[in-house]
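User: Can you model how 4'-deoxy-4'-aminopyridoxal-5'-phosphate sits in this protein?
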Amino acid sequence: MLNALRPQPQDKILQLIQMYKEDPRDAKIDLGVGVYKDANGLTPVMRAIKTAEKQLWESETTKSYTNLSGDPAYTAAMQDLILGDSVTSDRLSAIATPGGTGAIRQALELVKIANPDATIWLSNPTWPNHPSIIKFLGLPIAEYRYFDAESRGVDFDGMLADLARAKKGDMVLLHACCHNPTGANLTLPQWSVVADLLEKTGAIPFIDNAYQGFGDGLDEDAAGLRLLASRLPELLIAASCSKNFGIYRERTGILIAVAPNAEMHGVVQQNLAFLNRQNFSFPPDHGARLVSMILTDPALRADWQQELEAVRLNMLSLRESLASELQRLSGSDRFGFLAQHRGMFSRVGATPEQVEALRRDHGVYMVGDSRMNIAGLNAQSVPVLAKAIIDVGV
Ligand code: PMP
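Assistant: Here's the modeled complex, given as structure tokens:
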């Protein structure tokens, strides 16, 4: 049986990490992998997580199974963090999942049970795991225009024209904020136009919320999805705690289904729990428990929000200094988009040859589509990167 297996393509980002490790140059810059890094290049454990872990170690009396859907305190606290009061809680069903990826996978499996003919509409470009999982599950897939290569902003007219072709019951995958890989995001008025269009077509939003708090703030980053939740009968939300709580390896995520009415809650919740049962049974609890401890304890929550805000402002200031250094070197405003983009990533718009030259001649490592992880920079490397970008002719 095993000899029937064929090699799988190597993960491009993991390949890039390996090349970076093997590069002997001191001045190399890693803008590849999607984790937050501080000025020293470290991905720290957040203070509130450390405190909660200590408290948990002292207070936890059992490691017995929790609940198939996850700890209700976790799902309730996350529903509140994500949706605020945009929708009444009797319309919500939720499961804890292994990371945001687990939530995306479960959401797609739910679609497969309920409406296997639904086409899943993805932004072009999007996080490569989206199409990869959808294809693996055999669901129909379509793309909508999203990134304007010229302005490096959102091609909103193209997006609307393409999404106008979505059928009733199709799923439209939208990034809640901090679009990966481009960094270009919808404005709130644009979210409202998207809501109008979805109302008209009957297509259902499926929101990937992996970076809440990394863009404009915790509430600001959820404003678009809250607007959709307040206006549309149904939506799915897959959220990750990997980035905003810095607990990547704990695998902490949630899938929330918003139903048209409270009567549907029971059957939706049963189906979500059923999917957990089929795929891994009980979801991981450690990270989820830390998150619910932090969100429900005012002092821990305040500390977490303060540290998250510092992370956000650090990325924003790196964006601003990179944009202004590029303005100085190029004598033009054509890199102004870097300060407009939000989140960890920006697609700078380099050709594959320029990305290669950045690596070969300057020790700058970014993904082949020219996605840069802004958090990989610090005060010293910003001018080095700016010079390299100009040198290779971007
Ligand atoms: N969605 C997007 C857009 C992401 O960038 C990521 C993380 N790279 C995820 C979902 C999932 O993250 P995780 O499974 O690590 O929680």
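A couple of observations from the model: The mean pLDDT is 97. The CA atoms of residues 51 and 322 lie 35 Å apart.
User: Helpful, thanks.
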